[in-house]
Amino acid sequence: MANYNYDEAGNMAAYFLLTFLLIVLVPFSLPSASSKQPITEGVNIRKYFILAIGWALFAWVAYKVSTAEIENKVYNPFEILDIKNGASIKEIKSHYKKLSKALHPDKVKLNVNLTIEAVEARFVEITKAYKSLTDETIRQNWERYGHPDGRQEVSMGIALPKWIVEGKNNIWVLGVYALIFGGALPGLVGKWWFGNRKKTKDGVDARSAATFFKAISEESGMDDIVSSLGKSFEWETTPASGHISELSELETSVKKRLGHKWDELTKAAEALPENSDIRRKGLALLYAHFLRIPVPPSLQKDQIKLLLQTPVLLNSLLSISTTRNWLAPTLSAIRFQSYLAQAILPGQDTLKYAQLPGLNEAEAEELAKKSEIVSDVLRSLEESGDARITDLKRAVSQWGQLDLVDASFRVIDDRLVTPSSIVYLVVKARLVPPPTSTVDAVPPVSQGAIDDEKRDYEFLTGKQEAEDLPGADQNRRVAHAPRWPSSRKAGYWIVLADPKSNRVVVPPMKISDVPHADAKHPDVYRSYKLQFQAPPQVSTFTWKLYLISDTFVGEEVSQDITLKIDDPVLLQVEEEEEDEISDPEEDSLAGQMAMMRGGSVKKRMEGDDSDEESSTDDDEQSSGESSSSDSD
């Protein structure tokens, strides 16, 4: 029969609580992969406060467990007699006599803390331990059942304090169980279920994704992207209650700068009368960021939330565009992110120098008219003695110009691409600082470093999409985006497309941590690979490779790239013909030419020389005999 023992001290329940707290606290304490939000936001403060209380409770319970006294349930007569294991019978008897004299109830003096019952229990315990080691029957019981009295009842511990299951507390325990399993648990499951149905895998409202699906088209540009975002703000932003006057003043300032374009935007937002004020608010906050208009303190929190949510919306729009293989909206969505990061009005490429610190829009536009090259602009400002040149150079060094080192199509263990084979687009890139009076121009990467076959093969056969960073590179630096509400790394997108048909060949891939090269280390670059299946037909495809920044305006490179699909049947025939053609001999003219080209030749054997010499001798002998016969 089992004997159930409740955890009177609560030690077992403490272990259960520690495990539960650890399972809950660890995932919520790990940093999220998404962009960091400012710590001033209320939701983060509540999260950190709850985590602090949780970890404090974990530390307190862990301390209580570490200091709790746990009774040892394993019966050990040597430990009870305070004698070493394996002691002889003579030593056990001698030690027992000393203990029995000292602990006999008639010899022990009683006091307040030592009662006669405790003394008798202790004496019975040592007597039983002594007999366990000396009496044959009792010793067999101990060895067989672990107790001198023989088989005991099965004892099962329950990790609950006894007061929880006492009869007088039944109603409260049942109430707590009903609240947890009948109310809280179904509520959490329902919230999770319906929350997942309301959100897409990209983390946006399902209605926003439906808006993008309907709004963008094959030829959509930057204005269509803005219009789609404005419509989605209905489900991504909060109403403007309580800040009507501040929002009205902000709209007036934005309209003053945009003119009729603002009327077009708001007209599209008001196409659906319901919740049009929320869409107007979102557009006003967004364009206040683009135009660098100061926002009232009452609206700053809403603007930060809107800006941090906009890249998520753009990624959702990008997913929809690439699913349909549309090139124009894909490029527009990627480029729009750079305007957003640098707070520059979309489409205003003449303002790209406004990304640099201390330059206003008028100065940036004037510098763009002089030169499109950053190094030339820095040189002209330095020659004019501009006091901001030090900060400008520092910002440009963090910026870095994108350099496409090499791009090629590769197939593992094959030199040619055949129909429907697995192809890798291998892109090698680096960042170089623009040359100035204090910074030397970075030379091109050496051809030997580009054609490192061992390095390329190890990367191609590996599982990672990006090569390990070269050495202790310093590319963990934060991107220069002073007007963005949180820190961010510079990101770039690899896009393989066919501009003639306005189609994306494969879904774009985002990359980061592009290494920085300098004049002392010009061969620094990093490889990235994009896997796809080759077309099924034999042909030659001329595509275009784009490498576009989503952090810096105008920072992109592109080049034409050709994929040739060869016929495997013809290749097999060519290989067979090559095998049938034997190598030329080493001492022949063809062999000498082949050796100069680095080709293979047939080595001449020693036996061949002797055969030739013997044949020569025979020829000479036969010719001599014929001449003598003629003379006769």
UniProtKB/TrEMBL annotation:
It holds the Pfam family DnaJ. Residues 574-588, 608-622 have a biased composition (Acidic residues). PROSITE patterns: DNAJ_2. The chain crosses the membrane at residues 12-33, 45-63, 171-194. Keywords: Chaperone, Endoplasmic reticulum, Membrane, Protein transport, Transmembrane, Transmembrane helix, Transport. It is a multi-pass membrane protein. Residues 574-632 are annotated as: Disordered. Signal peptide: none annotated. It is found in: Endoplasmic reticulum membrane. Residues 623-632 have a biased composition (Low complexity). SUPFAM superfamilies: Chaperone J-domain, E set domains, Sec63 N-terminal domain-like. Residues 76-146 form the J domain. Its main location: endoplasmic reticulum. It comes from the Eukaryota. PANTHER family: SEC63 DOMAIN-CONTAINING, TRANSLOCATION PROTEIN SEC63 HOMOLOG. This is J domain-containing protein. It comes from Somion occarium. The lineage of its organism: Eukaryota, Fungi, Dikarya, Basidiomycota, Agaricomycotina.
